[in-house]
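name: query_chain
kind: protein
chains: 1
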Amino acid sequence: MVALPDWMALAPALSLALASLVLLLADSIDPDSTNTGLLAGISVLGSLLSFGFAGWFITAGTGMADNTGVALFNSQLVVDQMALFFMAIVGSVTTLVVLASYDYITEHSYQAEFFALVLLSATGMSLLSAANSLATAFVALELVSLPSYALVAFLKENKGSVEAGLKYFLIGAVSSAVLAYGISLVYAATGVLRFDGVATAISSGTIQTISEGSIQAQSGDPAVPMAILGVGILMIIGGVAFKTASVPFHFWAPEAYEGAPAPISAFLSSASKAAGFVLAFRAFAVAFPIGDLLAAGGAINWVMAFQILAIATMFIGNFAAATQETVKRMLAYSSVGHAGYVLIGLAAVSGSGEGLSLSLSAGMSHLLVYGFMNTGAFLFIALAEYWGVGRRFEDYNGLGKEAPVACAAMTVFLFSLAGLPIGGGFFSKFYLFSATLNVGAWSLAAALIINSALSLFYYSRVVKAMWIEEPTGSRTIESYPMGLYTAVVGAAIVTVLLVPGFNRVSEIAFQAAQLL
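structure:
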């Protein structure tokens, strides 16, 4: 074992932040530089270091000795196994995205700014994974969101990209206001913002204060106003639902994903979604214990709220995806449906202990697998855009004969997203299904099965077009971009390797949920 100072626990986030600062420094020295290889290399190195540190700390058992994690800044940030699990997801997805962007933005200006914004947003995602306070989480969430708005509108000559960025910004501003108001109500009701302090206030029924790192009841022990707390929790659910593109706060996602550069669509639909869910998992598993809330009365039953959200998100996302005529928009609505699957992690909760650990770890495992297969699918769209392939399903006709390796990778992604045993997606969905059976949530189990079957229909349309249909016109592929190809094939290999490796992933996720 190597003894490191406590601040080194933030090495995954610091690697991303340092790489972004190096990019900005390089841009300030030579503002007109178009050395895409150097800029992409710095970005890949920073994201790989982030992923490597997260993997190293998970393997070394960081935060497992005393089950509390590495607490920093008066426990405002806590790096434990769950934080490291999500930091690994962010680092891996960011690596694939910046690698693919090497070819995608070669002809565009402001390349250093592009990579720096990606890494700054990823830094916010890593910090959000370790947030142990509603205030810290809000600041980290804004660090995720602000660069994302600019990235969606990066193609300034493309009206669709600018329009998508504006819509994303406006809806994001409203959701941030709702989330901030919800946080203020929780603070008004409990007197604290740290997750453990909020939980202590709910369980004891008295407003809390934090003094020298310890949590104490206020003088006079005033009762917690549960009605105000319930409204605050409801608003926080709304803010989380926006960030995870859950129904009915999903309207921004198809517009943003379709208008943004394809690598950014992959980034937002995978890493950004994971960041939203880690906030939800931490806040509701730690700060708002459902057993104490129901015992106190007057507050919202957030498990039932997430059950309704999960079912609605699954059905609306998948049915909307089945009616789309463009591949990128289909994947956008598909990502909404997958948000519904992950919501099972909070909807299939039966209290605390092993039941809570099982449901949370199922959601975490699906997010990790989803990070590779969904990122790979969007990066394939970026590859198709690079080749000048159209946007509609029929434009992909016969592409498998001209680019068999890339199309084979896309087939792996799509069938794994549908839940077929060709990739890790089958096992992650089965794990979610087991979590629903564990608590007898038959409606969630039925919704999961029905929507997985429906998704196979629209995913198969792309596979059929690539391998079975004849091309509708002439098409010549003259080059095979190294960065995009490497990212797509690499994501496909990991998706397949997650079949034998899923047990290890689920064990780490379950252990992280138990420690939480």
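note: The chain has a mean pLDDT of 86.
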